[in-house]
Amino acid sequence: MQSRNMSLNRKYILIVGMFILLGLSVIAIILLLRTHQGAIIAPGQETFSHLNSAREITSDTATSYLFYDVILGWLLSICSVSTAMIIFPTLLFIVTMILFTEILRLEKVSNELILYTVGFLILSPAIMLMYVGFTAYALTLLLSVLIMYLYVRKSSWYFAVVPFLFFVDKIVGLIAIVLLFLLENVRGDRKKQLVGLGVTTIILLLLSGFFPSLSLASFTRFFSIQPNTLFSFFGGTFGFPFILLFLGIVGMLISKQSFSITRRQSLIFVFLILSLFYTPLRLISMLILAYYSAIAFKFLLSRKWGVWFLKSLTLILIVCILVFSTSTTFKETINKNPRSYEVIASETIASFVDITPSLQESYILTHPSYDEYVEFYSSLEVFPDEQKSYTILSSQKFSFVEQELQDNKISFIIVDTSRKKGNLWQRSDQGILFVFQNTRLFKKVFEHGDYAVYYYTQWDKNKNE
Amino acid sequence: MLYLERKKPLSKIASHLNVWKVLLIVVILAVIFFQSYFIIQSPAPSYETFFTMRQVEHIKQTGAPIIQDTQSYQGRTDVSHIIFYYIIAGLSFLIPGYALFKFLGVALTIVLLVLVFVISKHLFKKEWIALFLTTIAGFTPTIFVSQINTVLPEVFFLILFLFLILFYFKSDHQKFQRTFIVLISLATLVSPISLLLIIGFVIYFLFLRFESIPIKKHEIELVLYSGLFAIWYHLIIYKKLISLYGFQIISQNVPEELLLSMFKGLNVPLMIGFIGVPLVGLGLVGIYYLLFERDDKNLLLLTAFIFAFGLAIWLGFIPLKTGLLYATLMMVFISGHTIRRLSATFDKTIFPSGKIFLFVFFILILLLSFTPLIIYPQTITDTAPTNHELDAMDWMKNNIDSSSTVLGDITDGHLLATEAGVKTMYDTNFIFAPNPRERFDSARTIFLTRSEVSALEVISKYSIDFIYLSPNIVQRYPVESRIFDESGCFNKIYSNEKTEVYNISCNPEI
Predict the structure, then answer these.
(1) Which stretch of B29-43, B257-271, B289-303, B357-371 has the lowest confidence by average pLDDT?
(2) What angle, rounded to 10 degrees, do the helices at B297-314 and B277-292 form?
């Protein structure tokens, strides 16, 4: 019996280790392919948004920031950006996966189901993309899983973790406290824990100055359904993958009797509804969906089919859909901005600013989807008015463009005429491109294919006059 | 004596069967006759069919459909309905020229009516009900008109849809299960309406659950596979579009003004007008009986499809015309249930033959709803170009360079690209199209503005070289005079009774 248990444990460790390695390989492949294709390892805007905040914190110029940015700022003080970009997310991933599989093991989930659950998680774009670059959701997920782990072990140490979760994400922290309260209540004879939770809540709310009023209006800014971000197939980076959602629902329908405490199932259901409205909750709910998807997959695998030839076809289809959606999202991530030439372009602007300090008062005009990394690498602010940016970039009237650039102290204009997001023009003589061609007041200071940076020589004309 | 007595019932049965087949042929011939009457009144297929023609021509020349289209929207990508174009290209080797595109609908009508008869016979086990329903299907305006002068994926899909229903009814047998799987895979490749089929099946399972009717294992498995395959295929094909437009893809990128006319939502009086009062009445009564009284699995499936298509129309997932076509066909089958009940009710009375008068009355009402089409054939023929328009296309083909962009009405887009061989600013193929709403609004500016500068600004933005004034423009924007008549920047280079072509001789001032 003892040797059987040891063999099962060894098998379990092997499975967990294998999948963690697989997950790390997936992340590594994305990063390597990005580097190979001439991109900076971190894709998208969010990483640079956190880096900008971290830089502001370290230089004491930050007006508002996240707890995650504080941690990031500390980390960047001891290592470089590229090192931190690899180590920090990797650590978060490993710890999260180990804790989650431990929770499943403590809940006496079979090795086979653990295998499928972790498999679904590894192949969920939303989960894996959290560990490419910097995103606060990764830390939120880790802390949430840690609290779940401590609760399942019946340890009261989760009191030490709850404040951290609260400061990383107040809404998730509050929901965690409420769920713990309900679950401890059901467990029985946990009065100390209930009192402790109550006291913790009050202290945290007082310390943070966060008092969500009972009116719906105050909650709407935290909760909003945006259909495009809800599902990954609609383009949402952290949206539900279709197959995970589908199998998860099937799994829930199949396993309606599998939980011993029925109230836990109701809480899960409520949690899943809430996850439609708030991205961090959605990411946590994917762990739950992965588990139920594993149940559904196992059911389909072991079931006796009426139409025998459909069994293999259906299972192959499920795997194809999973792999397809994952590979498509990863492919988009590999090709996502910023590319290295965009970084060089921003660094060129930074070198201009070094030479001409007065440029520090000016702004860069560019498409809003580029603003975070342009700001990070150029050390210059991007013009903040999105609507006005579109208007100026689309205008062919020199007098209007000139006036707006001078009034708003815009010294650099970044244009990207490639056929992707950020391209506002269909022809090379449209909008502000026409203005560039017909006046000598704009100097092209950088060019790489469809990507160019123009310097407007009269940006400070109003100031001089 | 005994031998003669034995022979009499047999010969009666034999002649009985032949009578129904003969009557079916008569109904089909009547429908074909009337369809042909309308078809020969217009010289060309419908405007939308010209895109199919262009695809077929390209396949015949190069072996591949047009994916990178340099003409439509001055350049766009389109990967939809590829299998459908290959099928039509194959048929075009048998029937060349316009004839295929004008008369294929007639061939599809024959298949459709035979399928309606076969399915009705399977459902109700009585030939006279099957024939009655086939007659209704043949002469209901919505269905009748859909097959005239048109070769579109949605209409072709209708035939596949009926085959699928038939094989699903018979899916207790393994050979029909295989056939169903092959057909659903083909149907998925032909049209995205296959996704609505899956929604219909899901609603059907919900109905069965509510009615406590057991769902067979093979039914769930067939639908599960079909649903996953349809979703996977469409995720691949429309991935780029979905990631670009997100949830808005559901409105299919259609310009606002056309959105209102194409996707009218669930406008009940309008639907009754399209489907016809008798069919709506019979269908709704049938739905009531099915949902609240009798449990008939096969008819519940058809009811579920009506709900699925109704939901799709209401939410604007599909144009009203397309949704009504499918919903009407389902109504035809459902109304068979009402007729069966009426017949059974009459049989219990002292005047059972009275049902004949009732059904003749229904047929007369149906034919009455059909007669406006004959009195006003232009409701059908207006969907196709006239000889004047074709002459203008010929002239443009011979006198305008193929790299030029011609602005016409949105419905003229396919005609211009196919017959005149020029680039178009827009057309009715909205999926994957670049900014159709913006283009539609810009075109409206040109046709309605009194300002030369405004018109020329838009013309410059889209590099428009020529403007084509067709009867469709006159109908869409009925103004007394246009900027083209007054401004020196627009020179009329061609005109006939119904059309005009202008070139642009000015550059906009900046």
Answers:
(1) B257-271
(2) 120
The Cα-based distances of B39 to A435, B104, B109, B460 in angstroms read: 54, 11, 13, 40
Q: What is the pLDDT of residues B420-475, one digit of tens each?
A: 999 998 888 877 777 788 888 889 888 888 888 888 888 888 889 999 999 988 88
Closest CA to B310 of B296, B300, B301, B320: B320
Q: What is the pLDDT of residues B288-307, one digit of tens each?
A: 888 887 668 899 999 999 99
Residue B149's Cβ-side half-sphere holds a number of Cα atoms within 13 Å equal to: 25
pLDDT digits (tens, 9 = 90+) for B187-240: 998 888 898 999 999 999 998 888 888 889 899 999 999 999 998 888 888 777
Q: Using CB atoms, which residue from B221, B232, B247 is nearest to A320?
A: B232
The shortest CB-CB distance from B231 to any of A228, A242, A306 is to A242
**Is the CB of A297 inside 8 Å of chain B's CB atoms?**
no
Partner B contacted by A316 (CB < 8 A): no
Average pLDDT estimate for B269-289: 79
Strand ranges for A182-235 from DSSP E: none
Place of tokens 């659903």: B184
pLDDT class of A213 with cuts at 50, 70, 90: low
Q: Are A454 and A413 spatial neighbours (Cβ–Cβ below 8 Å)?
A: yes
Q: In 3-state terms, chain A is what percent helix, strand and coil (to 5)?
A: 70, 5, 25
Q: Using the beta-carbon criterion (under 8 Å), do B221 and A314 form an inter-chain contact?
A: yes
- Strand, helix or coil at A452? strand
pLDDT of residue A465: 55
Beta bridge partners of B274: none
In a mutagenesis test of the A interface, which of B168, B195, B237, B247 is the best target, namely the one with the most A β-carbons within 10 Å?
Answer: B247
Q: Is residue A218's pLDDT more than 70?
A: no
Q: Note the helical H segments in A356-413.
A: 371-378, 386-394, 398-407
Q: Is the dihedral of CA A361, A364, A369, A370 positive or negative?
A: negative
Give, as one character, the DSSP assignment of residue A131.
T
Dist CA B405 CA B462 (whole Å): 9
Beta bridge partners of B491: B503
Q: What residues are paired with A339 via a beta bridge?
A: A39
